[in-house]
Design a protein that fits this description.
By secondary structure, the protein is mainly alpha-helical. It is built from four helices and two strands. It has helices at 6-16, 26-41, 53-66, 70-82, and strands at residues 86-88, 94-96. Strands 1-2 form a two-stranded antiparallel sheet. β1 and β2 form a beta hairpin. α3 crosses α4 (70-82).
């Protein structure tokens, strides 16, 4: 049997001590999250963009740190911006707003 990592051990400990509670209407909540995930990751359109080599290099570095393909990182950033969860602040930097739905 596989050994548990620290996070898995904490989850088992919380379960066994009774700290975890079932979400009311769990099946409904799971179905809702599945619909949201499906809509979020549905990719039904293709675009071509031109960006600077420097920006692409930086995006690839960031994606590597996050452990995902750079195209997925770019898609995620664009999705968050389209959902109004990623906005620009003065100074040209982006900030991520928490969105509860």
């Amino acid at each position: 049997m596989k050994t548990l990592d620290q996070e898995e051990k904490e989850i088992v400990e919380a379960y066994e001590s009774g700290k975890l509670r079932r979400v009311p209407a769990a099946k409904k909540e799971i179905a809702r999250h599945k619909r949201i995930a499906g809509a979020t990751f549905a990719k039904d359109a293709r675009i071509n963009i031109r960006i600077s080599s420097r920006d692409l290099r930086e995006l690839r570095k960031l994606a590597l740190k996050e452990g995902l393909p750079y195209q997925s990182l770019i898609s995620s950033v664009l999705h968050k911006y389209a959902e109004r969860r990623l906005t620009t602040r003065s100074g040209g930097r982006a900030s991520l707003r928490s969105a509860r739905r």
